[in-house]
Structures are given as C-alpha cells and as structure tokens.
Design brief:
Layout lengths: L23 H14 L12 H5 L4 H4 L8 E3 L8 H4 L4 E3 L10 H7 L4 H9 L3
Parallel strand pairs: 1-2
Length: 125
C-alpha cells in the first residue's frame, strides 16, 4: 500500500490503493487487466500460507510436536509444506513442469492416489 494516498473506490477513481482482501485470483486477474490495458504499473502482495495465520495459536493442538509421522499432499509445489511435516515427514507434491496426458493418468503418475500415500506413510513408521 502506498502511504498517504487514497484508496480506489466507487466514490474515488483517483485513489491508487486497491484493497482486495483474500481474493488472489480476482486480485491478480484485475491487475493483469490493468497491465494489459497499459499506462499503469501494478504490484501484487499476498500471504503465502493462510493457515499460518489461522493456525498460529492452535498449531500445537492440530499438529502436536510429538507426532513426527506426517504426510502432506499438495497437488502444486511442495514449497512451504516442510514447515508442517518437519524434517522427518514426507511431502507428495509437484515440483516440476511438463506433465501431459489425461488427468487421472497424470494424477496416478505423480502419486496422488491412495496406494502411494499409504506407501509413503509406511516408510515413516
């Protein structure tokens, strides 16, 4: 946010700050449109992990420190999940590009199926 500058609103089209709240897709789509239109610059800032905010005070209740056998399943990049699974846990994620094919085949190939999740968990026990 730009300090000492008004917010853009229905009542003030000259404002330079746009407040979106928790709406990343809408926010980035709108700002991409602004960039494509031209004559404007945009800057996007979001929280990386929303659960850090919501679980900040209850993290030890949800993820007790004594529980080390944790498996995280993220059908995107695994970046950030190490915080939750710890050094002894496993993450099933996608950390590369260029997987093509039918959705169910790609999902199976990448290990997002029950059989593989159980197999990964059993390596921890």
């Amino acid at each position: 946010m730009i300090d000492e500058v008004a917010d853009f609103s229905p009542d003030n089209y000259t404002g330079k700050n746009n407040r979106y709240g928790v709406r990343e897709h809408a926010m980035t789509s709108i700002l991409n449109g602004i960039l494509l239109h031209g004559d404007a610059k945009s800057l996007v800032s979001i929280f990386f992990v929303f659960s850090d905010c919501s679980l900040m005070n209850t993290n030890s209740l949800v993820l007790p420190k004594g529980v080390k056998n944790r498996v995280a399943i993220e059908m995107r990049a695994s970046f950030g999940w190490h915080h939750y699974v710890g050094s002894e846990g496993k993450i099933i994620g996608i950390d590369h590009f260029s997987e093509n094919g039918k959705g169910e085949e790609v999902i199976e190939h990448l290990g997002f199926i029950v059989k593989n999740v159980v197999k990964e968990y059993l390596t921890l026990v």
